[in-house]
Amino acid sequence: MAPSSPILPKTTQDVDESKYSRHGLSGGSTTSSLGACLKGRRARTVLYASLLFMGSVWLITHFGHKSWSIRQANTVDAHGQAMKPDQQSSNDAAAIAAVEGDLTEALDVGLPFKQEKEQVTETEEEKEKPLPVEAEVRKMMQRYPVLVFSKSYCPFSKKAKEILATYKYKVPIQIVEVDLRDDGPEVKRALTLMTGRSTFPNVFINGESIGGGDEVASMQHTGQLVDVLTKAEVLA
Question: CATH code at 173?
Fold first, then answer.
């Protein structure tokens, strides 16, 4: 009989091989296991990327088509007529302004607002048409040689009234506080149409406007005011 080979102690490699054999793995290294793991991660990455791409395509297709349909519908007005490019641009600008919260801009470009405000547009004929209050103003001019249209809170009106009050008149000076009248805006409009002055005070001597507070103060300073009043024969 041939002598049997001696039993040698197991090396580290032998121990590793027996361990991998028990777990169903081959070889003495972890190369195969690592490759399988990497292969699994790559597959999952490709799968996730594919799902993400398909989802993006679906979103773009679905909502993009809906947005295009809405835009096409918005290019037709209430009568079914196609809107002009400038009209469509105006509506788009109005919608954007409304979304951003700029209601003022939205109203300017014509976006409908829930509470419509009445806008009064005056034609040239309406501007030239005499106002009922204008007749009253002319009657006061004829009745009072010295007439002042004032505002009770206005410092310029106060200055003019103080200067005029230093003189004595045959007919007492008449002061009309426009801001205390119910028809104050109409009186102001009538005076503007008659004299071209829209500010107060408006001082009249014998039916003619001599100006406001600054003019009266300047005339008083130069001595011209007393000459005007004397020539108008209104002083007592």
Answer: 3.40.30.10
Strand bridging mode 208-211 / 174-177: unpaired
Contact 205, 211 (CB under 8 A): no
Question: How do residues 141-200 score in pLDDT, each as one tens digit?
Answer: 999 999 999 999 999 999 999 999 999 999 999 999 999 999 999 999 999 999 999 999
Q: What CA–CA distance (Å, rounded) separates 44 from 100?
A: 43
Count of structural domains, the chain:
2
Domain membership of residue 149 as a residue range: 131-231
Structure tokens at 106: 């939205």
What pairing do the DSSP bridges indicate for beta strands 174-177 and 146-150?
Answer: parallel
At 22-42, the pLDDT tens digits run: 544 444 444 555 555 555 777
- Ramachandran region of residue 18, left (φ > 0), alpha (ψ -120 to 50) or beta? alpha
Q: Cα-flanking dihedrals φ and ψ of residue 13, to 5°?
A: -65, -40
SS3 235: strand
Residues 60 and 145 in one domain: no
Report the SS3 class of residue 97. helix
pTM over 0.70: no
Could you tell me which residue, 119 or 178, shows the higher pLDDT? Answer: 178
Q: How far apart are CA 191 and CA 144, in angstroms?
A: 16
Cα separation of the two ends of the chain = 168
Specify whether 143 is located in the same domain as 68: no
Residues contacting 44, CB < 8 A, separation 6+? none
How far does CA 23 lie from the centroid of its chain? 75
